[in-house]
Write a structure and sequence with these properties.
Strand order of the largest sheet: 2-1-3-10-4-11
Structural class: alpha+beta
CATH class of the largest domain: Alpha Beta
Radius of gyration: 22 Å
Number of helices: 19
CATH superfamily of the largest domain: Periplasmic binding protein-like II
CATH architecture of the largest domain: 3-Layer(aba) Sandwich
Distance between the termini: 38 Å
Strand content: 15-25%
CATH topology of the largest domain: D-Maltodextrin-Binding Protein, domain 2
Helix content: 25-40%
Number of strands: 20
Length: 460
């Protein structure tokens, strides 16, 4: 395994020691246990970032002691919640459904509730399928007869299964593996592809070890992560839950106002590259961070239930009417809750003046960013042409570039510009996150031609 991946895998396995939730801690303080996934960076406002900011502890004071427990996936968090050892947890949409289903099956005393959202993507682009960067595959159909690594029951696995179904691709073997194991299998050639959730696709592409074959946004089904709580805890310790949710709102505001600092903080805590974290969590990032429980996300859970039943991981029914409960976040949020719950724009938009094109950045669908080494703020670009001009100017001036971000011209998926497929169409350059999207565009624009990223920078 690559050394960087070994470090990440080792850090992921280092979870905090267990402590029975609700028991008295040191000095007579009552222990509150929070389960989170540090590497799943779509949960940072209820996990890694929130923990580093200390908002929750500050709100609780000395009466309570907060214990943070870090896990690879949502499954062990659910197991610990059902055992009464975790009070509050954060996880993805599929694990949330499994959490609600298992808890309801154990009876009223074990019930859990989805009480807030961390981050989401309405099209599903937080999940993806990556392949070796030198592989010849162009579409998901090229995986026929191949082995794909995925974590069974995860959102990444769901994306793979639904994509194979959409394009009628059969004879694909799925190897059930944890993300770090799957990354190693992809690197060694034991797996032709890796289907995973945020941040694994971006991490492997950022490391130069893979490219994006399939963007989950092609399914156009929302994906998100949220906060779940034991109902008995919410009823008995309502003040603690309110403190947590208000702290989550504060952490979300911090992320919106200080996106680069937040990315660097998460990177320092997790060992992930800050450039990967920023791809998802930065201004205009793939993740939209919003604590409100939106109708589209509840609908997405209903859409997901049949799939989870079909693969046998949702063995008991789940009453979503009892599981989804926004009364707690509504109380913590205040009067603007309904208004903001109906809105879906990313509050962390890319703004500012494009230095190369000398104009304001005012179209979120086209805007990009350049992150220069040594700077704690990114440089905005108004559109792909201006992005390339900015990059060329910085290179000519001897500036070292940490990362460049652009958006897929068809889907809006934000990706690393130097890992995208670029087409030259008339007097403009058009970027795509996948070869599949580039081929779709080319079908409607037959004069468009492939151009390497470096050449596009030189000639834009």
């Amino acid at each position: 395994m690559n050394r960087s991946l070994t470090i990440i895998a080792a850090a992921t396995l280092a979870a905090g020691g267990c402590s029975v939730a609700g028991n008295a801690g040191t000095g007579g303080a009552t222990t509150v246990v929070v389960g989170y996934q540090s590497k799943t960076i779509n949960t940072v406002t209820a996990g890694t970032l929130l923990r580093s900011l200390g908002y929750f502890e500050k709100a609780l004071g000395t009466k309570y002691k907060v214990v943070w427990q870090d896990y690879d996936t949502g499954a062990p968090i659910t197991a610990q919640m059902l055992a009464g050892k975790i009070d509050i947890g954060s996880m993805g949409d599929y694990p949330l459904l499994i959490n609600g289903s298992r808890a309801q099956a154990q009876g009223a005393d074990a019930r859990t509730e989805l009480v807030s959202v961390t981050g989401y993507n309405l099209r599903g682009s937080l999940n993806g399928v990556v392949v070796d960067k030198n592989a010849k595959y162009r579409t998901i159909a090229d995986l026929k007869g191949k082995t794909v690594s995925a974590s069974i029951g995860s959102a990444g696995h769901g994306t793979l299964v639904q994509a194979l179904k959409k394009y009628a691709v059969g004879d694909v073997k799925t190897e059930n593996q944890q993300p770090s194991v799957g990354a190693s299998a992809l690197e060694s050639g034991k797996a032709a592809a890796l289907a995973q959730f945020v941040a694994w696709p971006g991490l492997l592409v950022n490391r130069g070890q893979a490219r994006l074959l399939y963007d989950g946004g092609d399914l156009d089904v929302p994906t998100f992560h949220g906060v779940v709580v034991r109902t008995s805890f919410a009823e008995q310790r309502g003040d603690v839950l309110q403190a947590f949710l208000k702290a989550q709102i504060q952490a979300t505001d911090y992320l919106h106002q200080h996106p680069v600092e937040a990315a660097e903080s998460v990177a320092k805590s997790t060992g992930l590259p800050a450039e990967t974290v920023y791809l998802y969590n930065g201004a205009g990032g793939q993740s939209t961070f919003d604590v409100t429980v939106k109708k589209q996300l509840g609908d997405a859970l209903r859409h997901d239930v049949p799939f989870l039943k079909s693969i046998g991981v949702l063995q008991n029914p789940v009453d979503l009417g009892k599981f989804i409960d926004d009364q707690y976040i509504r109380r913590a949020y205040g009067a603007k809750y309904d208004q903001d719950a109906a809105a879906t724009e990313n509050k962390a938009a890319i703004t500012g003046t494009d230095q190369a094109c000398k104009k304001q950045v005012d179209d979120p669908a086209k805007a990009g960013e350049i992150w220069l080494d040594g700077e704690h703020a990114t440089r905005p670009a108004a559109d792909p042409q201006c992005l390339l001009k900015n990059v060329r100017t910085f290179q000519q001036n001897g500036k070292k570039i940490r990362a460049v971000y652009a958006q897929d011209a068809l889907t809006g998926t934000r990706w690393f510009a130097d890992a995208m497929v670029w087409l030259h169409d008339g007097d403009r350059y058009v970027p795509f996150a996948t070869r599949q999207n580039a081929d779709r565009y080319r079908a409607a624009h037959p004069n468009a031609t492939d151009v390497p990223y470096g050449e596009a920078v030189r000639t834009a």
